[in-house]
Amino acid sequence: MTHEINELVPDVSFLQEGTQGRWQVERFEIGEKELASYDLGTIKDGPRAIASMRRPKMGTYTRLVYTGDVFEDTVMSDVEGEKWELERFVRIATGTVLINGLGLGVALNAVLLKPDVYSVYVIEKSKEVCALVGEQFEQRVADGVYGSKGLLILHDDAFTWKLAKGEMFNVVWHDIWTNITSDNLTEITKLKRKYARRLIRPGAWQGAWAEMQCRFMKRLNNAYGL
C-alpha cells in the first residue's frame, strides 16, 4: 500500500529548502518520538486519525511551514498520510488540470508526471509561496523534467479569479485549507459551483482536499449537537 501511493504521488525531496517572508520549505524527520506523539494524538482526537488516513512512516520528509505571530503551522508535507488524500485526484487527472492552492506542490508534481496530463494551471493566493515553490516547478518544466508539459502558476484568489472566456478544464482540484473542519464545506461548495461549468470530458471531475473528513465531522457535530 505504501509503495503504491509513493509511486502514484512521489515525494518532493528535490525542492530546495528556503524562506520567503513567513513561509519556509524545510526537511524534517519522523522518528520513534514523533510516532509516539502521533499515536497519543489519535487517541485523544479521533477525527485526526480519520483525517490523516494512514499512520506516518519513519524517515525524512519535506514540509511547507508558515510562521504566524504566535506559532508555526505546517501547511503541507509529503508524508504518506497526506499523499493518500490526493490519490483519487491524481488517478483521475487528465488533459488540462486546474489546481487551486499550490502549497508544497505535491499534487502538482504528481499530475505533471502523468503522460495523459498535458497542461496544468495553478492558482495560489500567496505571492511568497509562488516564489518559494512555484518558481522551482517552473524551472523544472523549462528544463524538460516532465517532458513537453504546459504550466501556468498564477498569483490570484481561487474565489475571485476571472476565467477567460471559453477556458475549460478536464479536472479541477481545490486544496486551499490548512485545517480539517466542517466549516470548510461552505467554501468547498462555493468553489465547486464556480468551476462546474468549466468542466469538459474526459474527466469532467472536481474534488476538494479532505472533503470526506469534513462531511464526517459535520455528521458528528449534528449527531451530538455541537
What does this 3D model show about the protein?
This protein has 226 residues and is an alpha/beta fold. 38% of the residues lie in helices and 24% in strands. It has helices spanning 2-8, 32-44, 46-52, 80-84, 87-92, 106-112, 127-142, 184-195, 211-224, and strands spanning 18-20, 23-30, 59-67, 72-77, 95-100, 117-124, 150-155, 171-174, 205-208. The strands form 2 sheets. The chain has a 5-stranded parallel β-sheet with strand order 7-6-5-8-9, with helices on both faces. Strands 1-2-3-4 form a 4-stranded antiparallel β-sheet. β8 (171-174), α8 and β9 (205-208) form a beta-alpha-beta unit. The longest helix is centred in the middle third of the chain and has 16 residues, at 127-142. The protein is globular. The termini are far apart. Residues 48-52 have low confidence and may be disordered.
What is the compact description of this entry?
This protein has about 230 residues and is an alpha/beta fold. Helices cover about 40% and strands about 25% of the residues.
Element layout with pairings:
Layout: H1 2-8, E1 18-20, E2 23-30, H2 32-44, H3 46-52, E3 59-67, E4 72-77, H4 80-84, H5 87-92, E5 95-100, H6 106-112, E6 117-124, H7 127-142, E7 150-155, E8 171-174, H8 184-195, E9 205-208, H9 211-224
What keyword list fits this structure?
226 residues; alpha/beta; five-stranded parallel β-sheet; 24% strand
